Structure prediction request, 543 residues.
Amino acid sequence: MNEMQPLKRWALGTALCLTLTHSAAYADSAPLQQALAQQLITAEEQHLPIAEFYQLRDGQPVWQAVLTVESLVAALNGLESDGLAPMDYHADTLLNEFHRSQTLGVSAQAAFDIKATQSLLLALDHVERGKVDPRDVEPQWDAPRPSRGYSLLRVVHAIEDNKLEDAIALARPSSAEYQQLRDALKQHYQLANLSSTPYLAAREESLRPGDEAGDVVILRQRLALWGDTDLLAADSGVYPLIGVQGTATNRRLFDASLETAVRRFQRRHLLQADGVVGEQTRLALNTSVATRIDQLRVNLERARWIRPMQFAEPRVWVDIAGYRMHYVRPNGQQWDARVVVGSPRRETPIIHSAISHLTINPSWTIPPTIMREDVLPRVRADIGYLARQNIQVISPAGMPLIAEEIDWQHPGGVMLRQVAGVGNPLGRVVVRFPNNDMIYLHDTPARGLFQRDQRALSSGCIRVEGVAELAQMLLQDTGSRYQMSSLLSGGSDRNVNLTQRVPVALHYLTAWPNEQGEVEFRPDIYRRDATLLTALQRALPSS
Prediction:
């Protein structure tokens, strides 16, 4: 229902009631309350629960005491730790506007009260669901924005107790991951206030354990900036906020403790953890604090988008940029696996769906893009490629065709299907869920790819390490009578429906806590962060 209709209906009724009321109890508050009701009739619609808010207050104004307004401003300023801009909610002007309204009469006071309420409700909406509509920056986003989940009555009670921070906390995602991202952002805001730290210079040769050079001193400083504070001698004047302690016997020597710190840093940035400072490690070490702050803000916004999906059980969740898949089982246990995701040329899309069935010993109908860009050039160069790869040529209706009779320069509606077997790129199991992009989870014969640190290597679908084990758990957890051991020994292209669907989500997060609660910073493999950051930084229209 349009928010304006209940707002007008309630405000008109309140205004009429106050006009007809003459008791002494209303003598002082009636003029302001009536002005408030009248202005709410024409208040600009913002799809916010303004009417409900004031109904819960029996039409009484809220923001007419300086302490209450100061508490509101402090709570709005605290949104910085959520990656939001307090100025979007007028935190920088509300207090001055309050003082001015108090000198201008009830009409100005009522207008201010409505504006302050709108600021709070907008902040609650953004903290809960995100400032940016994901569909504006992720064209393939296929999930509706969730409705309000917090209790507005509890918000009103928190305001009446002058606990504005608690009011905002009611809307904030409660997951441990969200809080860990917030904590990391707070820490990075502190780091931004430190004295500048020198950057590692580019060098032809990598910096290795055992090296002794001036660059090692800078390496220690960069690692101390990012958390390894025991690598430097204490200097509270340079590092007052990060508690530098301990001493190094030779700060120019790349010793064992420094190697351990480099490996730890590399793991947190999804780099090869070899303890050697090559180009990629140097670039990650030299990333500015401001860049990491932007990265955390972007991913806090993404965390707000996916909040409703984090609590469904069971569920399968693919962390695209983290190259991991997580399956939370009905008993709360979690099964994790490494995955290979789409390359930057063929990105894995964000998807929300539900696993419907498995395909055992699958054949592979080659998708049009792969056929056009990868397979056809090889077939044109050597028609024998098809036979060597066990690829059948079929019509759109599935009828077999003779490869030698096809004009491969202009093959028309021809389809290619690779039969089940050892060399089939889908391996022996496919986990399927409805989506518009023909994406699925699957096995692979190229299991060595799971050993790589950077695994954006597929054509869009998700290769899962140990997918047969995942399939067995899905069968077991949904009450199926089938066993993977017997299914795998059967024929090809056997579809097995799950007795109940299991939610699945594919999401893109370039900063996210690991199992130890440390925030990992991942490469932005699909270059999506900048678009979201621009949208997040876009100022809201002033009201």
The chain has 19 helices and 14 strands. The mean pLDDT is 87.
